Amino acid sequence: MRLAPAGLREWGGGGILIILAAVLLWWLVPVSWINWAASGLLALAWFCIAWFFRDPHRLSPTDAEPGDMLSPADGCVSAIERVDQHEAVEGPAIIVRIFLSVLNVHVNRMPCDAEVLETIYKPGKFLDARTAESAKVNESMLTRATRSDGLPFGVRQVSGAIARRIICPVKCGDRFDRGERFGMIKFGSTTELILPEGADTTVRVQVGDRVAGVRTVVANVPVRPSVAGE
To answer: H or E element: which one contains 35?
Structure first.
């Protein structure tokens, strides 16, 4: 099982502490069955931490079309909104919001081949990520980017009541392939895919749908003809 490097402090440091606790336990307690039971519980605790930080290898769908925008996260589609103005695309936008429970993979991936324009961090509250208000007032990190054909889009990472550390080590000019990892949010959280609203933008998921990062096509925005023909 591959583990996300961003969680090294948790799964690495936690593993060291658990090993030290187990060694101390065997040294201090003479009853073997207690040692075995306690060691088993410690091992289970580490596995739960490691399981959260798992980072599975993913391949994009073989039938994906050039204009397909893949899911940037695992989870459940909690909302699909249309707004008159969004800073990610500097105009009308469609927001596909994905809720990640503590059981989901929390690594975030690029929905398409992209170049980063900027990242915008906003401090905020730490409300339960399952509430609609949390997406508006919680701490967040917006990554503005353009697709290879110049289409502007954004991926916004939003913290939750438990998740209080957003990992997004990207900067202006960084280039990513479709499905490449660019960050994660530790523990329960929300990830949004923001696309420009237009007659040619087609959302292919509904509220309540389960999505998987890289594997699920969330929307399609046809590649601009001038680029598609090159």
So the answer is: helix 32-52
Inter-helix orientation angle 13-28/32-52, to 10°: 180
Cα 163 to Cα 179: distance, rounded to the nearest angstrom: 23
* Residue 84, token pair as written in the block: 């008159």
Among candidates 78, 67, 71, 75, which has minimal Cα distance to 100?
A: 75
Q: Model confidence over 105-156: pLDDT tens digits?
A: 889 999 999 999 999 999 988 887 777 888 888 999 999 999 999 999 999 9
pLDDT at 228: 44
Of the candidates 78, 159, 189, 226, the residue annotated as catalytic is 189
Q: Following DSSP, what letter does each residue of 134-189 receive, concatenated?
A: HHHHB-EEEEEEEETTS-EEEEEEE--SS---EE----TT-EE-TT-EEEEESSSE
Q: Which residues contact 23 (CB under 8 A, 6 or more apart)?
A: none
| Domain boundary assignment for the chain | 5-52, 68-223
Lowest-confidence range among 15-29, 102-116, 197-211?
A: 15-29
Burial class of residue 150, CB neighbours in 10 A (0-12, 13-18, 19+): exposed
Q: Are 89 and 196 in contact (CB under 8 A)?
A: yes
Q: Is 189 a catalytic residue?
A: yes
Superfamily (CATH H level) for 68-223: Glucose Permease (Domain IIA) (2.70.70.10)
